[in-house]
Amino acid sequence: MQIAILVAKAFIIQQVILGLASFCTWVERKGSALIQDRIGANRAGVYWNPKNPLLKIFTPIVKVFGVLGVVNTLLNDAIKALLKEDFVPEGTSTFMHALGPFMAVLPVFLAYCVIPMAPDFEVAGYTIRMQIASLNTGVLFILAMGSIAVYGVVLAGWTGNNKFSLLGALRASAQMISYELAMGIAFATLILSYGTLDLYEIIEVQKSGWGINPLYYPTGILSFIILFIVGMAETKRGPFDMPESESELVAGYFTEYSGMKFLLFWLGEFAEIALFAIILTIFFFGGWHIPFVELPEGVWWAALVGHGVLMTKVVFFCVLQIVIRWTLPRFRYDHLMNLGWKGLLPLSLFNLMITAAIVLWGMNLS
Amino acid sequence: METIVFYLLAASIVFTGVAVVAMRNPIHSALALVCNLIGVAAIFASLQAHFLATVQVIVYAGAIMVLVIFVIMLLNIKEEKPARERFLLLGGVVLAGFAFFVALSFVFLHQFQVTPELTDEITGSVANIGRVLFTKYVFPFEAASLLIMAAIVGSIMIAKTKRREVS
Predict the structure, then answer these.
(1) Is A154–B63 a contact, with Cβ atoms under 8 angstroms apart?
(2) Facing residue for A148 by CB, picked from B27, B55, B61
(3) Residue from A93, A137, A143, A359 whose CB has the most chain B CBs within 10 Å, to mutate
(4) Which of A160, A129, A185 minimizes the C-alpha distance to A5?
(5) Distances from the Cα of B112 to the Cα of A110, A212, A215, A271, B3, angstroms
(6) Tens digits of residue pLDDT in A11-62
(7) Which residues on A lie below 8 Å from B126 (Cβ)?
(8) Treating both helix axes as pointing N-terminal to C-terminal, what angle do B26-46 and B65-75 enclose, rounded to 10 degrees?
(9) Angle at A244 between CA A238 and CA A250, to 5 degrees
(10) How far apart are alpha carbons A94 and B157 in whole angstroms?
């Protein structure tokens, strides 16, 4: 029974990740068109001409899906990618070439293991926590998976057997390693102010009032800004997309990938965007709590509502990241490194010191 | 259940450990070492030492090995050719294996005394490890950080090239 519950939880959380990732894909395609004053994906739809009058009710919905590009981005692109030729460049081992996209997706999905998706609820005598692994090192596990994620990029660039891929991989891994420092210290600051590493407990601390506890303090606002910038840089998007800058490197580390392997990189990237949105929501915006509203504990509908609230906040941050990506121009590479090492790292260290002083001299948040 | 997991992990650790030495391509052996380190982390995790496992992944698999692979990629080291002095090499391997066996037998013959209070402190959460680290073992901890500091300064001194005089 325990194993059945675990499998069910893993399945549901995987569906949540895939749903968020495909939503991000759609916003990326159609939203970018909106920002750039284009029409965007609107042509492909599903053939829908049913005889049954009951099914005819759905006709407008299907039409709208087609015009909005949902069918185009989610269904047709995936089918197209599956049918494409699976290209492997000369002189690399096929296995290593396939390992690249795999390693780009796996760590991101694993990082979701420690993320609680809904408040606890009871079904048939079992108390179910929508979190696959309740480790006592929750936040650190996400950091660990983030550091493993570098391998996907490095492998992809190296097995491309191509100078552009290798340059892209070097840029990407240097960027990820540089920003991981600031990210780790920003996490340490938040762990200090919450006094726990478990993400579930962190959400429960923010139960009452506005539920945005660390933001009451200037250090909290500072760590939010740091974590947001670092999140954008870690996903290698937004103004930080030097590793795949088209005008210099063709497509960076995934130049030599085609078909579904290429789409796997995008899946990993969008799952990472959603992951950072979830982290921001959990740390700063109260997770599944609605300000000044307390949901009853242990009821299944409260869990559903909580999950909905969490996902609403997460979707907001996903869309925000995509809008920033399509609005701001790209950094120059030395500016990026300066920002990481000379800007964010000293700032986050300073922030850590101040927070430690606040926690030490009695202004405990919880 | 736990024994099965342990033996699977142990087998994968030994296998990847051999692969580190046996692979011709330096990147392949570096990746095998990454798998090895993650396997050791998994054994830590199966002993309920979650913090140790996570830190093992962050520090060894995530930071050190990435730098190793970085250097291999930048220097563009090609596949190694098989060594010529086969006979000498074999002798060396046998000697090293024997030395390792002797060292290992000393370890196994020695009976380790694990005091119960120590295990109580080690098993468990980050809070326990932090408490022990900053009270009982604060001197070794600080000494290690001093050593790392000295190593960082030393590596910067070695890596720093003298700036050319602009005339």
Answers:
(1) no
(2) B61
(3) A137
(4) A129
(5) 37, 50, 50, 47, 22
(6) 888 888 888 888 888 888 888 888 888 887 777 767 777 777 777 777 777 7
(7) 136-137, 140, 197
(8) 180
(9) 140
(10) 42
Q: Do A158 and B73 touch (CB under 8 A)?
A: yes
Contacts of A150 in chain B (CB under 8 A): 62, 66
Interface predicted TM-score (ipTM) over 0.85: no
Q: Considering only residues A291 and B40, tell me which one the structure prediction assigns the higher pLDDT.
A: B40
Cβ count near A62 (within 10 Å)? 17
- Range with lowest mean pLDDT among A4-8, A313-317, B127-131, B133-137: B127-131
Please, what are the domains in chain B? Answer: 1-81 (1.20.120.1200)
pLDDT on residue A212: 56
Binary contact (B62, A147; C-beta < 8 A):
yes
A365 has a pLDDT exceeding 70: no
**Residues of chain B found within 8 Å of residue A136, distances taken between Cβ atoms:** 50-51, 124-126
Q: Which chain B residues have a beta carbon less than 8 Å from that of A137?
A: 50-51, 54, 126
Q: Domain extents for chain A? A: 89-360
CA distance B62 to A139: 15
pLDDT at position A366: 44
Structure-token match 């680290």, residue found? B133
pLDDT digits (tens, 9 = 90+) for A325-334: 888 888 788 8
DSSP calls for A11-61: HHHHHHHHHHHHHHHHIIIIIHHHHTT---S-S-------SSHHHHTTHHH
CB A12 within 8 A of CB A118: no
With beta carbons less than 8 A apart as the criterion, state whether A196 and A337 touch. no
Residues in A touching B54 (Cβ below 8 Å):
135, 137, 140-141, 143-144
Q: Which of B35, B48, B58 is best to mutate for the A interface (most A CBs within 10 A)?
A: B58
pLDDT tens-digit readout, A94-152: 888 888 888 888 988 988 888 888 887 777 777 777 788 777 778 888 888 888 888 88
pLDDT mean across residues, chain A: 81
* The predicted structure's pLDDT at residue A213: 61
Question: What is the reported pLDDT for A309?
Answer: 87
